[in-house]
Design goal:
Elements: H1 3-12, E1 35-39, H2 40-54, E2 57-61, H3 63-67, H4 71-81, E3 85-90, H5 91-99, E4 105-111, H6 116-122, E5 126-129, H7 135-141, E6 148-155, E7 163-164, H8 168-176, E8 181-187, H9 199-217, E9 224-226, H10 230-235, E10 243-246, E11 267-272, E12 275-279, E13 284-285, E14 291-292, E15 297-302, E16 319-322, E17 325-330, E18 338-341, H11 343-348, E19 356-364, E20 369-372, H12 374-381, H13 385-391, E21 398-401
Parallel strand pairs: 1-21, 2-3, 2-10, 3-4, 4-5, 5-6, 6-7, 6-8, 8-9
Antiparallel strand pairs: 1-11, 11-19, 12-15, 13-14, 15-18, 16-17, 16-19, 17-18, 19-20
The structure holds pyridoxal-5'-phosphate.
Pyridoxal-5'-phosphate binds next to strand 10.
Length: about 400
């Protein structure tokens, strides 16, 4: 813990300055049993299933610390599984991967600010040009006598980032006139490829095809075109083009209807029973006491709370697994703790302090096994599984498992 000294020194210094940020909890320092376990073999297997299914190159989306799974570890697993490229949202996310020694192509999809363009290109990252305001810094960059390889994003209907369709021709002409700029890729992003109604995605695909023709007329010669996120890749075969940018399916979550391959969830959130008590009917549980036990109840206290990303809205809503059986979360989830009702499990198979409790993921018990998916938690709090995964906070150390696939018989 050298950080407090830096912070203390900064506070004693008359120059205002910012201090370094705190790293995420390290599994080796963890005293509390609460941890996220990430199965890298599941991620590798999902990558291979997706690649086989879509039949084109798959670039793994590892923004936001690989959706909470750990960007460096996940990227290493994806590259080993055959990924030729990775996608991040921020320059600093790309730099983190380069510092870790990852040499695959890395597309920076959005966060190129200020000098970020230079920094990205110096680090061998591929920035996305998504706004006409980037042309000027790109032209300035020319004076350095270096080639800038970029991808160009077209806004075909998401209205977030990308060159608007009426601006495509003149933007591409400007880019084509910059001899030091190579537009290697042309891309767009779908707004609702996960929805039942395919009509808007079809419109977006048609607009993208027209934009490509305009770009080629302007003199650009992109070698790759990409439009698909996970939902697009699974549901719109004609939009797969040279490569797809998939995130959520590689983590084993497919929150949309599809005929694609089965996927294995890679993330599990595990802790252990911290304390046990038996209370009589009528006993209130937790802050505000708005849950009251209707009968004699065995309560297990678990060391996980909303500060860990176990949403307070899961109060009296979620279920957890103990010895492979479901137990309801009862009472308000607090910052560091929550309570679960283990009355039935205590009667059948018994519960002890130290028993494993699974909030997300699978568990096997004497009587059977069960799985809690991110989709289930998301439905209970009214959000999407992406947010459930990203919400698990840095207080929760990540541990990694890699189980090699069983050798196939010839
Ligand atoms: C996040 C993101 C993706 C990946 O989306 P998934 O639904 O996780 O597959 C692809 N492209 C862009 C531009 C993104 O921001």
């Amino acid at each position: 813990m050298r950080y407090w000294r830096e912070i203390y020194a900064a506070m004693n210094d008359s120059d205002p300055k910012t201090t370094s940020t705190f790293p995420r909890a390290n599994i080796d320092d963890a005293v509390r049993p609460t941890r996220a376990e990430i199965d890298l073999s599941a991620i590798a297997a999902n990558f291979q299933s997706v690649a086989r299914y879509v039949g084109v190159d798959v670039w793994g989306v590892v923004k936001a610390d690989a959706y909470g799974h750990g960007a460096v570890e996940v990227s290493a697993a994806l590259v080993r599984a055959g990924a030729k490229g990775l996608c991040v949202a921020l320059v600093e996310e790309g730099l983190e991967l380069r510092r870790a020694g990852i040499s695959a192509q890395i597309l920076v999809m959005s966060g190129v600010y200020g000098d970020g363009l230079d920094e990205a290109i110096d680090a061998g990252l591929t920035p996305v040009i998504f706004d006409r305001s980037q042309l000027e810094p790109l032209a300035r960059f020319a004076r350095r006598g270096q080639i800038a390889r970029v991808h160009l994003k077209i806004d075909t209907g998401m209205s977030r980032l990308g060159i608007s369709t009426p601006d495509v021709a003149r933007t591409c002409e400007a880019l084509a006139s910059m001899p030091h700029v190579r537009v290697d890729g042309l891309m767009t992003h779908f707004a609702d490829a996960d929805c039942d109604d395919a009509s808007y995605t079809d419109v977006q695909i048609d607009r993208f095809v027209e934009a490509e023709a305009a770009a080629r007329r302007a003199g650009l010669t992109p070698t790759v075109r990409h439009a698909c996120n996970s939902a697009g890749a699974f549901r719109f075969a004609r939009a797969r083009m040279e490569l797809v940018r998939t995130g959520i399916v590689l983590y084993g979550v497919a929150p949309f209807p599809h005929d694609g391959p089965a996927l294995m969830p890679a993330f599990s959130l595990r802790t252990a029973v911290l304390a046990l008590r038996e209370v009589p009917a009528g006993t209130p549980v937790g802050y505000a006491g708005n849950y009251r036990c209707s009968k004699t109840t065995v309560l297990a206290t678990i060391p996980i709370g909303y500060a860990d990303g176990f949403f307070r809205r899961l109060s009296s809503e979620a279920e957890a697994l103990v010895r492979g059986e479901r137990a309801k979360v009862v009472g308000n989830v607090s910052m560091d703790m929550a309570s679960i009702d283990v009355t039935a499990i205590a009667k059948t198979v018994g519960v002890s302090v130290g028993d494993e409790v699974v909030l997300l993921g699978s568990q096997r018990g004497a009587l059977g096994s069960d799985l809690i998916r991110a989709e289930e938690i998301a439905a209970r709090v009214g959000t999407i599984p992406y947010e459930v995964l990203c919400a698990v906070s840095r207080r929760v150390p990540r541990s990694y498992v890699y189980k090699p696939a069983p050798a196939r018989s010839p």
